Amino acid sequence: MVQAMNAREKGELILRLRGIGKQFGAVTALEDIELDVHAGEVVALVGDNGAGKSTLVKVLAGVHQATAGTIEYLGKEVTLDTPGTALELGIATVFQDLALCENLDVVANLFLGHELSPWRLDEVQMEVRAWTLLQELAARIPSVREPIASLSGGQRQTVAIARSLLLDPKIIMLDEPTAALGVAQTAEVLNLIERVRDRGHGVILISHNMEDVRAVADRIVVLRLGRNNGVFTAESSHEDLVAAITGASENSVSRRAARKLEVTGDEK
Amino acid sequence: MTNDVQTSQTAPQLDRADSRVRHDEGLSGALRAFVDQVRSGDLGMLPVFVGLLLISVVFTALNPVFLAPNNLVNLLFDAAAVGLISLGVVCVLLLGEIDLSIGSMSGLASAMTGVLWVNAGVSLPLTILAVLVTGMAVGAIYGFLRNRFEMPSFVATLAGLLALLGLQLYILGPTGSINLPFTSPIVRFGQILIMPAWLSYMLAILPGVLIVWNGIRTGQKRRAANLSARGLSVTLAKALILTAALVFAVFYLEKGRGVPWMFGAFTLLVVLLDYALTRTKWGRSMFAVGGNAEAARRSGINVRRIRLSAFMICSSLAALGGVFAAARLASASQQAGTGDVNLNAIAAAVIGGTSLFGGRGSAWSALLGVIVIMAISNGLTLLNLSSSLRYMITGAVLAIAVIVDSLARRSRASHGRA
After folding, report:
1. ipTM computed for the complex
2. Please, what CATH class does the domain formed by B64-193+260-418 belong to?
3. How far apart are the first and last CA of chain B?
4. Minimal Cα–Cα distance from A124 to chain B, Å?
5. CA distance to partner chain A, nearest, from residue B294 (Å)
6. What is the C-alpha separation between B274 and B266, in angstroms, rounded?
7. What pTM was computed for the model?
8. Domain A13-236 has CATH 3.40.50.300
């Protein structure tokens, strides 16, 4: 973390997706997706359930392979055929289902696949590094030698986030990182996203929480039914954003707001 | 890493910052932690010790010969072959897979030993090499079927059970049985060779010394890194108990013939596999794949390669076990590897504490489990029971072991310890 190179020019294009498509049998999960991520930028991906956000993240993480389109990483076209490839390139992911091994302890999960000294595991060094990472996140983990199974949902989420930071990635993707977190941890995660951005990394954030998105995102990319549906900034109005997400200015959210307005009379 | 130093200077100890965690210090603390662990369903080696105690009491009451030193020496001779096979099974069980063809594989290996070495006159090292390569090839086929076609390992290896048995009968030909010469080194290894007493005693003391040395070194390293270190008293107590038990065991066996080299070789392989499983990246990956294969894949672990390695190790160890069995019986026959070999090897691993559900277990479970299984089988033989009764009883023991495994798993789940 600390030895992060700031050599990359801020604003340099790190990741460039063009025409990304993904078919699951007869279902088109993604179609003709375009997405740019620059260094030192937080891009929020928003959209309704089933819009294709998690699928896109999985394509970028190497979990699924795109059926169409190109991915350019640092100016070079790359194929992300395994999760290992994505991690080596410097694309780290916090998955929505966290992808932790419940039978292993926190240290083992943090370093999974990237253990220090593979032929004679350096447990002490790994444990020190684990505590340091967790402290950076202001995490409340009672013991790093307990199996993940004994941790709460929020604690597991913190472990998953800490793991993504371990390899000092260039881009970090967070799929609903604050869903199970308490107030303080949510703030810490948002702080962390800003710290990572200020260090010159790119961040892709998926969240249903518009408050969180507006707080940290430089650009808000809306997906709808597997397609791009507009790019907004934190300054864009809430109505415009909701309209883009739901696909109509007349939608359940606006109807609800209007109803409330009628009842209370002085809602904003 | 500069950051690490700064944080560690401000905080008292990195892992003692949270006041909610009870830290068990000293001997009573260690005992309390152990009791908690067992209560939550993490039984560890406990069933083995309870089982052994029960078996010894019952069989000694029925026939005092059971506990005679030379009978125990025989038991260790018998245990090595099945133990090796069981050691391989531990590897596939850790991934939540199974290999049902281990018995046939060992039978094929013993047939190959007879055909290649005795009949064809191939040198012994070359024969063993050929057997090991065959084992690896068979394991590679299982791994390939599992990885490429997602074929459940229990079906693939069930097919293998029949195919390998057929191959064993085929290469043995119509005679059906080949005797290994009694004066040959391999049969002497399987029936006679005993470690010198001084070596046995030294090897009995070695684990205790290593535990203390390792405990002191880890303690120093942890303190240097500003982590809490376990007190020396627990380490010393552990080392003392273990050393006393081992020295007594050697002393008792030395009243008979002594400790068989064959058992020593098996134990060495257990130690090697234990190191690989607990202290290397490969071992960590094995546990990860067994616990959550998809999570392991997303961490960049090559799950297919891990599976392949596990199946290959399992089949090669089964093959080596077959050579050991041939050495023990001084013959390669059509019966080798059939009957209860499969069941005994799998039962040993499970009784020793390796879960059938993957992600939990250790190499030591093969050693401890096989001693339990062999003690039962040996005791029943001493009682002159027919093999029909022996099969039924061994089957019941396996069922009980699996029930204990399942119950412990459920209890662990409810106590939040996968």
Report:
1. 0.86
2. mainly alpha
3. 33
4. 6
5. 7
6. 12
7. 0.89
8. yes
